[in-house]
Design brief:
The chain is mostly beta strands. Helix content is 0%, strand content 51%. A hairpin with a 6-residue loop joins strand 4 and strand 5.
Length: 124
């Protein structure tokens, strides 16, 4: 079992930045692939970014260059740095962890553990 707790959401103006954090506890954090997802009202949950156990990263094409995923294994914490935020980035952001064997890195159905979400609101 893995427990995930996100923080760092908030309200910002377009062009601003936020850093989301996700603290993992339970079974070894370093064995899991981790990712960030987001879900806007009335829309499906979509993959934002993934980081593998070896540190390799994958991003949604539309977000590449503005968002950065990274982790600190000493602190069992996953981060998402979001720059140049746009109103369309408004959503609830979730961190997730997958057991070994992950195939589709940005597919929510591949993930076994989820945090409760943190709200990000970007105003124009």
């Amino acid at each position: 079992q893995v427990q995930l707790v996100e923080s760092g959401g908030g309200s910002v103006q377009a062009g601003g930045s936020l850093r989301l954090s996700c603290v993992a506890s339970g079974d070894s954090y370093t064995r899991d692939s981790m990712a960030w997802f987001r879900q806007a009202p009335g829309k499906e949950r979509e993959g934002v970014a993934h980081i593998g156990v070896d540190g390799t990263t994958t991003y949604a094409n539309s977000l590449k260059g503005r968002f950065t995923i990274y982790k600190d294994n000493r602190k069992n914490t996953l981060y998402l740095q979001m720059n140049d935020l746009k109103p369309e980035d408004t959503a609830t952001y979730y961190c997730a962890a997958a057991l070994p064997g992950l195939v589709f890195k940005l597919s929510p159905t591949e993930y076994n553990y989820w945090g409760q979400g943190t709200q990000v609101t970007v105003s124009s």
